[in-house]
Automatic annotation (TrEMBL):
SMART domains: Aamy. It comes from Rhizobium deserti. Residues 14-407 form the Glycosyl hydrolase family 13 catalytic domain. This is Alpha-glucosidase. It comes from the Bacteria. One of its GO terms (molecular function) is alpha-amylase activity.
C-alpha cells in the first residue's frame, strides 16, 4: 500500500508571477500582488502555490535565466515581500513551492562572468566549454530548444559554451562537484525560509553527457538526485516535482518510487508531445486525438498505481490554454471547461491548476509577431522565415501552441486590463476579459471556478479520489472517457464526453452503478445501466459506497 503523504490530497496552483497580479501599476505582476490574492486561492481550496521563478534575472526567458539565486527580481519585489507571502500563505494553511532552475543560469550570473574569463579561472568548469570542431564550427550537433545550435562561440577564449535553451542560458556542468555543492547550499538557504518544496526545471537534463550527445537521463542523473535529496530536502516533509519532458513510466518510478529517496513526483509530457507534428513540432497545428490521449493518461495511471505518484495537469506556462486545446472555447466554454476539470481531477495523482484555467481563460488571438513576447516563439518565428515558411502559417501555429497563450495577464474583473494592472501590461490582455474573469466566476454558482472548488473539495472528502485503483473503460470510444476508481467495497464511475455532439453510450454491465452523484456539469446522474444519452461535453461522477 502507498504510504500516506500530505501532498496526496493536495491541489497545487501554478502562478506565473509576471502575469498574475500587478500591485504597483508598472504593468508587471509582482509578489505583493500575489499576497493580495491569497484569499482568492484559499476560497478555491488550494493547498500549495508553485511560483514560476521570482529570482533576479535579465528576463531573457522571463526568469528561467537566473543571475542571483538568492535575491528577488526587483520588478517582482524584495526578500521581505517574499517572506511576507510565505507567512500570509502559512496563516491560510497554504505552502509556497519555488521553481528550481539549475540546469542552467543566466549569462549574467557571476559564476558565468568568471567562467568565461578563461581556462585558469576557478569557475571555468562550472559550465560546459569545448574547443571548436576541426572545421572551426560547434563541437557537435546538439541543438537548442529555442532554435539553432546549442553551442555559442565565446571570442574571449575562442571556445564554445553549451546552452540547451537560449544563448543567454549557459548550461551548468553538473559533473563538477563544486557546482552541485553550491546548488545544494542555495536550496537549503530557501528551505530555511519555510518553503513547502521545489518544482525542478528540466531536471532530466542534469545528468547530461555532452560528448556522447546524451542530454536527458544521463548515467548519473539519479545519483545526483539522490545526493540532492540527502544534502537538502530529504529530511523535510516537502513536495518535490521534477519537470521531465523525457519521462517514461519506467523512469517515473526511478524518480518517484517510495524507496528511491529522490522526488515526490514528476511532470511527464507524453500527452502533450504525442500531438505534435513530426517535423514542425508544436508549430504545425493539429487537433488532438482522444483515443491517444486516453491511452497515454491510462498508461500513466496504471504504471504508477502501486508506487510512484502522478502529477496531473492540462496546462502550465509553456502550454496552450487547456480550454482551447482540449475543450471548446468558442462553442461550449463552460461545460467543456468543467468536463476537462472533472476528467483530470478525479484521476489518481496530485492535480496542478494553472493560473486562469479555473476561470476558463483561453488562447489569445494574436495576429502579428509584435504581440508576442516569448523568446522561444520569437526565435522560432525567425527560423521559420529564414526557412521560407509563411509568417501567416507561423502565427497560426503560435496561436494554437505558443507559450504566450498561457502568459497573458490573469483576468480578475471586467475593469480595464482585466483588473490585472492600472498600467499598461507587459503583454496584451486577452480581449475576452470582460466575460471571462474571476469576479464574474466567483459569483456564478454554475461557473467553471465553482466546479474546480467542488472537485478540490471532493479530493479531501473522499479517500477513493486519492487512493482508489484506476481502471479505464471503452478505451476505443472516440468521444467519451470512462474510468472507475475502486477502494475496498466502494466504487466511483467517471464519465466525460469530450465531444460537442450528443453521444448515446452503451454501458458495459460491469459498469452498472447506482449511488451518489458527486459532481456533474448538467443535471445530476445517479445510476448507470443499459444506455445513456450524453449531452455535449457532459461529465459526471457517481459514487457507490457499500451500504
Ligand atoms: O521548460 C523546459 C522545456 O523543455 C520547454 O521549454 C519546452 O521545450 C518548450 O516549452 C516546448 O515548446 C522549462 C521551463 O518550463 C520553460 O519555461 C523554460 O523556458 C525552459 O525550461 C528553460 O528554463
Ligand atoms: Ca508590478
Amino acid at each position: 500500500g502507498t504510504e500516506r503523504k500530505w501532498w496526496h490530497s493536495a491541489t497545487v496552483y501554478q502562478i506565473y508571477p509576471r502575469s498574475f497580479c500587478d500591485s504597483n501599476g508598472d504593468g508587471i505582476g509582482d509578489i505583493p500582488g500575489i499576497t493580495g490574492k491569497l484569499d482568492y486561492l484559499k476560497s478555491l481550496g488550494i493547498d500549495v502555490i508553485w511560483l514560476s521563478p521570482i529570482y533576479k534575472s535579465p528576463m531573457d526567458d522571463n526568469g528561467y535565466d537566473i543571475s542571483d539565486y538568492q535575491d528577488i527580481a526587483p520588478e517582482f519585489g524584495t526578500i521581505a515581500d517574499f517572506e511576507q507571502l510565505v507567512a500570509e500563505a502559512r496563516n491560510r494553511g497554504m505552502g509556497i513551492v519555488l521553481d528550481l532552475v539549475v540546469n542552467h543560469t543566466s549569462d549574467e550570473h557571476p559564476w558565468f562572468i568568471q567562467s568565461r574569463k578563461g581556462p585558469g579561472n576557478p569557475f571555468r568548469d562550472f559550465y560546459v566549454w569545448r574547443k571548436p570542431a576541426e572545421d572551426g564550427g560547434p563541437p557537435n550537433g546538439l541543438m537548442s530548444s529555442f532554435g539553432g545550435p546549442a553551442w555559442t562561440l565565446d571570442p574571449e577564449t575562442g571556445e564554445y559554451y553549451l546552452h540547451l535553451f537560449s544563448r543567454r542560458q549557459p548550461d551548468l556542468n553538473w559533473e563538477n562537484p563544486s557546482v552541485r555543492k553550491e546548488i545544494y547550499k542555495m536550496m537549503n538557504w530557501w528551505l530555511e525560509r519555510g518553503i513547502a518544496g521545489f518544482r525542478m526545471d528540466v531536471i532530466d537534463y542534469i545528468g547530461k553527457q555532452v560528448d556522447r550527445e546524451i542530454i536527458h537521463d544521463g548515467p548519473h542523473l539519479h545519483d545526483y538526485l539522490q545526493e540532492m535529496n540527502r544534502q537538502t530536502f530529504g529530511s523535510r516533509d516537502i513536495l518535490t516535482v521534477g519537470e521531465c519532458w523525457s519521462a517514461t513510466p519506467g523512469s517515473a518510478l526511478l524518480y518517484s518510487g517510495r524507496d528511491r529517496q529522490e522526488l515526490s513526483m514528476v511532470f511527464q509530457f507524453e500527452h502533450v508531445t504525442q500531438q505534435w507534428d513530426e517535423t514542425y513540432g508544436k508549430w504545425r497545428s493539429k487537433p488532438f486525438d482522444l483515443v491517444k490521449l486516453k491511452s497515454v493518461l491510462s498508461k500513466w495511471q496504471y504504471a504508477l498505481a502501486e508506487d510512484g505518484w502522478n502529477a496531473l495537469f492540462w496546462g502550465n506556462h509553456d502550454l496552450p490554454r487547456a480550454l482551447s486545446k482540449y475543450g471548446d472555447a468558442t462553442g461550449y466554454p463552460v461545460v467543456s471547461g468543467k468536463m476537462l476539470a472533472t476528467a483530470l481531477h478525479l484521476m489518481k495523482g496530485t492535480p496542478f491548476v494553472y493560473q486562469g484555467e479555473e476561470i476558463g481563460m483561453t488562447n489569445v488571438p494574436f495576429t502579428k509577431i509584435e504581440q508576442y513576447r516569448d523568446i522561444e516563439t520569437l526565435n522560432m518565428h525567425q527560423l521559420h522565415l529564414d526557412a521560407g515558411l509563411s509568417p501567416e502559417d507561423f502565427i497560426k501555429g503560435a496561436n494554437e501552441n505558443g507559450r504566450d497563450n498561457a502568459r497573458t495577464p490573469m483576468q480578475w474583473s471586467a475593469a480595464p486590463y482585466g483588473g490585472f494592472s492600472t498600467g499598461t501590461p507587459w503583454i496584451e490582455v486577452n480581449p475576452n476579459y470582460s466575460r471571462v474573469n474571476a469576479q464574474a466566476a466567483m459569483t456564478d454558482e454554475g461557473s467553471i471556478w465553482n466546479h474546480y472548488r467542488k472537485l478540490i473539495a471532493l479530493r479531501k472528502a473522499h479517500p477513493i479520489v486519492i487512493y482508489g485503483l484506476y481502471q479505464s473503460w471503452l478505451d476505443q470510444h472516440p468521444d467519451v472517457m470512462v474510468y472507475t476508481r475502486t477502494l475496498g467495497p466502494d466504487r466511483m464511475v467517471v464519465v466525460a464526453n469530450f465531444s460537442q455532439h450528443q453521444v448515446t453510450l452503451t454501458i458495459p454491465d460491469e459498469l452498472n452503478i447506482t449511488g451518489e452523484c458527486l459532481i456533474s456539469n448538467y443535471k445530476p446522474v445517479e445510476s448507470l445501466n443499459g444506455t445513456i444519452g450524453l449531452e455535449p461535453y457532459e461529465a459526471f461522477a457517481i459514487l457507490a459506497k457499500a451500504s
